[in-house]
């Protein structure tokens, strides 16, 4: 099962970047790579006051080694994912036993949003891996009191903090606190090794804190969102989390207090039903020492996310290590219910296969014979688990769950996403001008931007200004269809040379996905020569 999933993850490394967060983060790292400035976070020429540095540092180093490519951007997250799956195994083994650890690793590796985090790469793959690692190290320290685990805990928390802030510290800390309460070893709270861990945590996060100090505290004249005299140290140590929780960053789900529940059902599929069942079961029967960590973490984070003013589905990935261990433990504990578990998972697997069919036979039909061969292989694996008599019902349930999810994402990574991304203008325009125009000579018309274009041409965004035509008759600009008339009204002439279809694919609706109506909703994006009208 891990080999099958490994194939899916590797294929996902080659899926082009989406213009939303993936390409956006990739271009921030690109700025570091091209300028050699690893201290300042810069987004389209402006200071970026939001996330910490770790993802950008890792990707910039990856560019330095492998070049500016899709794989180079995704590789750090992929490597952390491997570490996160292994950490989940060790976490489950530490709380339960070796078999639970292995199943927990398989559960998290085959969870919908966890696989997706390695396709549409943001901070979540690294963040989830850090939460898994720090929780494993924390449990090991509480159980064995070894200083090496205190160091590991400090490192895991610090790496998580340097990826996305306090949420990476809060999530494992909640579970570990309740685990300590259950054990009632009160001397644990006074163990001097906590001090070592705390000092190391402060040391490990100091590079990020120092960079925020240099970028903002040393430059009070900088204006971000209408504010100057920004205290960068205070922002990264306090304000960032407060602004996220209060919703100052904005969110369309502010008052959706059940957001965690309905998002978790699909994000943790195909295991979410059993995770919820396990929590309800444990609430009825009472928690043992393991559930004091896992179930309580999920419940508290459900409350926190529900009350938060800023919430997005990928924020739920931080509970996946705890959810995977809880689910694995409950499944093995209830393996005697194998037939019931099998029927539930078979029903979900059929829905997953139907979704795969809609995506890859209606919306974007398969055109590659290698993809067809891979699909046939994975279907054979799926039917092997549904039809074979050598497995128990429980084993079949696990096998068909993983194989159906693997089939979905194999087709998603090898067929659906590559075809979908041809309707994102940035990469398509970068491909069309390759070898014909120097991308360094292309400027963006005001309010136009494409992170994917900049990434796939290895250039930084430059905005067009009239002065650029002072010393030459013509220049190249990139603009969307809606801006054509504005450009002409501003006294310029255009000679269109390259164009590509464009659509906001992160908000794809049925009119776009349906091939019969797709052309009606597409926009166009252009790269054209611009000159002053005579």
What would you note in describing this structure?
With 534 residues, this protein is of the alpha+beta class. It has 3 domains: 2-248, no CATH class; 336-421, no CATH class; 424-532, Translation Initiation Factor IF3, CATH 3.30.110. The chain is 63% helix and 7% strand. It is built from 23 helices and 6 strands. The strands form 2 sheets. A 4-stranded mixed sheet has the order 3-4-6-5. Strands 1-2 form a two-stranded antiparallel sheet. It is globular and about 85 Å long. The mean pLDDT is 93.
SS elements, strand count: 6
From the structure provided, what is the oligomeric state, counting identical versus distinct chains?
single chain
Count of separate structural domains: 3
Question: Can you give the mean pLDDT?
Answer: 93
Q: What structural category do the secondary elements indicate? A: alpha+beta
Q: Main β-sheet, in a few words? A: 4 strands, mixed
Query: How many whole angstroms does the radius of gyration measure?
Result: 25 Å
Report the helical percentage.
55-70%
Order of helices and strands: HHEEHHHHHHHHHHHHHHHHHEHEHEHHE
Widest beta sheet: strand line-up = 3-4-6-5
Q: How far apart, in Å, are the first and last alpha carbons? A: 67 Å
Silhouette: globular
């Amino acid at each position: 099962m891990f080999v099958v999933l490994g194939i899916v993850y590797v294929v996902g490394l080659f899926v082009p970047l989406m213009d939303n967060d993936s390409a956006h983060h990739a271009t921030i790292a690109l700025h570091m790579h091209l300028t050699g400035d690893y201290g300042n976070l810069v987004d389209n020429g402006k200071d970026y006051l939001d996330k910490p540095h770790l993802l950008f540092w890792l990707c910039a180093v990856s560019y330095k080694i492998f070049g500016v490519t899709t794989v180079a951007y995704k590789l750090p997250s992929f490597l952390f994912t491997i570490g996160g799956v292994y950490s989940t195994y060790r976490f489950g083994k530490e709380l339960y036993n070796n078999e639970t650890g292995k199943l927990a690793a398989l559960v998290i590796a085959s969870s919908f949003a966890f696989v997706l985090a390695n396709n549409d790469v943001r901070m979540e793959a690294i963040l989830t891996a850090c939460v898994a690692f720090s929780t494993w190290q924390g449990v090991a320290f509480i159980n064995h009191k070894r200083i090496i685990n205190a160091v590991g805990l400090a490192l895991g928390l610090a790496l998580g903090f340097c990826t996305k802030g306090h949420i990476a510290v809060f999530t494992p800390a909640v579970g570990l606190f309740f685990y300590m309460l259950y054990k009632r070893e009160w001397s644990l709270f006074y163990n001097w090794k906590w001090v070592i861990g705390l000092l190391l945590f402060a040391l490990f996060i100091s590079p990020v804190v120092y960079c925020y100090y240099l970028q903002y505290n040393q430059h009070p004249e900088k204006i971000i969102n209408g504010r100057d005299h920004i205290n960068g140290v205070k922002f990264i140590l306090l304000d960032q989390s407060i602004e996220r929780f209060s919703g100052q960053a904005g969110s369309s789900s502010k008052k959706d207090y059940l957001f965690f529940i309905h998002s978790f059902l699909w994000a943790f599929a195909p295991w979410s039903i059993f995770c919820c069942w396990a929590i309800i079961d444990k609430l009825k029967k009472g928690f043992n020492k393991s559930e004091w960590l896992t179930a309580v973490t999920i419940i508290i984070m459900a409350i926190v996310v529900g009350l938060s003013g800023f919430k997005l589905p990928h924020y739920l990935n931080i509970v996946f290590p705890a959810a995977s261990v809880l689910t694995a433990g409950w499944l093995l504990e209830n393996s005697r219910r194998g037939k019931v578990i099998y029927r539930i998972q078979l029903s979900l697997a059929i829905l997953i296969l139907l979704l795969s069919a809609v995506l890859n036979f209606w919306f974007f039909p398969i055109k590659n014979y290698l993809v067809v061969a891979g699909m046939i292989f994975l279907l054979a694996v799926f039917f092997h688990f549904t039809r074979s008599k050598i497995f128990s019902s429980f084993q079949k349930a696990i096998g068909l769950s993983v194989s159906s999810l693997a089939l979905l994402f194999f087709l998603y990574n090898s067929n659906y996403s590559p075809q979908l991304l041809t309707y994102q203008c940035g990469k398509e325009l970068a491909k069309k001008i390759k070898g014909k125009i120097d991308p360094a000579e292309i400027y963006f018309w005001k309010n136009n931007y494409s992170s994917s274009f900049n990434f796939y041409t290895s250039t930084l965004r430059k905005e067009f200004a009239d002065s650029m035509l002072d010393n030459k008759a013509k220049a190249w600009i990139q603009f969307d269809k809606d801006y054509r008339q504005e450009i002409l009204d501003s006294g310029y002439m255009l000679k269109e040379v390259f164009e590509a279809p464009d659509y906001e694919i992160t908000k794809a609706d049925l009119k776009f996905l349906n091939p019969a109506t797709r052309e009606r909703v597409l926009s166009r994006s252009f790269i054209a020569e611009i000159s002053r009208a005579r």
